Amino acid sequence: MSDHQISVEAxxxxxGEAKWSAVRELQRRVPGLDREAITFQVVxxxxxxxxxxxxxxxxxxxxxxxxxxxxxxxxSREAQDDDPSQAxxxxxxxxxxxxxxxADAAVSIAEVDGELVATLVGDDLGVLIxxxxxxxxxxxxxxNAICHRTQxxxxxxxxxxxxxxxxxxxxxxxxxxxxxxxxxxxxxxRVELEPMTAVERRIVHxxxxxDPEVETSSEGADPNRFVVVLPRRSAD
Length: 236
What we know:
Blueprint: E1 4-12, H1 15-29, E2 38-44, E3 47-48, E4 55-56, E5 58-66, H2 77-82, H3 86-101, E6 105-112, E7 115-122, H4 126-129, H5 134-151, E8 157-162, H6 165-187, E9 191-195, H7 198-208, E10 214-219, E11 226-231
Parallel strand pairs: 7-8
Antiparallel strand pairs: 1-5, 2-5, 3-4, 6-7, 9-11, 10-11
Helix pairs in contact: 3-5, 6-7
């Protein structure tokens, strides 16, 4: 298992204050993190308004490479004996993951429209969502893979959510997709969206697949693979 990078963005009145806020957030997420292991990217240096009235805050991205935690989330025989249902297996997987991550979250499971929706509920779920939803998408993939192995064809599709994250992210993606499509139509030039997970790219492709003026494709390599919106080619 290789090391991984964790990043946070923070703001402040000055670059120094923004860096300090970012360091505190990183050290909260990774207790014992060495300050010297953190690198910074200055996004904006901040700008005071005319005659000192109003200002644009400084913004930085702080990153650190940290070793992964050894997290084991098997579906044990004991867990299956306690509750061998699909809901029980998914709950056991997520509760083990929550415990290993150190997050303060509870797991709620409900059947919605033929899907098993497992929702993580808590105040600070960033570590379980991950950048661009990479962690929560990985949990969803793992939950579905385990249920495929243990439940066979009788399983329901599992959706892992975190206090409405899926709906909020879908709204953000829809807005970005529609804006990109309008820009493509207005300029005739392709527009590249930000890197996304496979789940998010699929959402964008579905949103624009019936648009008569644009089409989409995916380019790049994970984890930086992204969606491109471009003018729809003629059928001729």
